[in-house]
Prior knowledge:
The complex is a heterodimer.
Chain A: H1 3-20, H2 24-43, H3 49-66, H4 76-94, H5 103-106, H6 116-129, H7 134-145, H8 150-157, H9 161-182, H10 191-196
Chain B: H1 9-22, H2 30-40, H3 42-58, H4 68-91, H5 95-125, E1 144-148, H6 154-163, E2 166-170, E3 178-182, H7 190-198, E4 202-207
Antiparallel strand pairs in B: 1-3, 1-4, 2-3
Helix pairs in contact in B: 1-2, 1-3, 2-3
Amino acid sequence: xxxxxxxxxxxxxxxxxxxxxxxxxxxxxxxxxxxxxxxxxxxxxxxxxxxxxxxxxxxxxxxxxxxxxxxxxxxxxxxxxxxxxxxxxxxxxxxxxxxxxxxxxxxxxxxxxxxxxxxxxxxxxxxxxxxxxxxxxxxxxxxxxxxxxxxxxxxxxxxxxxxxxxxxxxxxxxxxxxxxxxxxxxxxxxxxxxxxxxx
Amino acid sequence: xxxxxxxxxxxxxxxxxxxxxxxxxxxxxxxxxxxxxxxxxxxxxxxxxxxxxxxxxxxxxxxxxxxxxxxxxxxxxxxxxxxxxxxxxxxxxxxxxxxxxxxxxxxxxxxxxxxxxxxxxxxxxxxxxxxxxxxxxxxxxxxxxxxxxxxxxxxxxxxxxxxxxxxxxxxxxxxxxxxxxxxxxxxxxxxxxxxxxxxxxxxxxxxxxxxx
Lengths: 199, 212
């Protein structure tokens, strides 16, 4: 954890303390601070804005109620994203028979101001992530996107560190074999070879 | 691109270190080592470039449009609707559990107290504890030993006791004798003894002799 993370965590803890005392302004600040991160994290689970909004709502409703019971065993971000992860899984179970993709927006996914380069990067990533399982996508997002450690990810996903390592390893191998091909660099290698090398 | 593990320990180590180098969370010295290795290993360098691109792509803001302000308004209205119930719960998140436990402990304490007081009062009212080796306590004044006939019906026995206002305080013993005393606490009269002896089904009725 670098200095920026330490400062951010100290601010989050202060906001949680204020929330525990019933301060809605602190809740508003924390909500705005985490909304973007949670949107992106949950978008690896579902593409439906209504479900993502519902999960974020549930997450902060729980955070508001449980703020007083946060003992600081982990970073606040680990705690909040762990709540969002569990709420997300619950929402997926409730909406299990509905499509994960928002059809109305799938064709016009990117805003009009999105540069071609960024659009290309997003497409490249989306095609790679689509070849991963949901747990692998979330592990990649937590490590590469949100900058969590293996221990943090294990806490968030409520699984052993070894499981996180395996998910990340398989995700990286699959992405390594997929992404260059998507960019037209080299042909896709067979994944069987990598599976044999998994510790 | 060579495999991260099969091509040697350095490439495997570099493979492990890449995500944390991108996070700038590698231990001191690890980052320098990785940079040196990347300078020498083309395949790991290509892998690291791809990892950097992955991190850059994955760090882009979400492309799923979710309105933060609308979501916040919904959250606040949700809190408003449950505020009356939630406020005490939020201020003391486990208060209902604690209160339930405290209530249970109090009920148990009161119950134990009542039970103890009752047992104590009963013990005061009853005869003191006596071991089997101790002599039998003296019979109550006016007690009568009565031996009913074995064929005497229970209803007849009860009717006789009721008629003579007697109650059984002990028995039957090995020979089938009961000890009866007047139910009103008074001494038995000779008339009671006479009626007992005259009753059908009574084989013996003798007053209990007072201890010498």
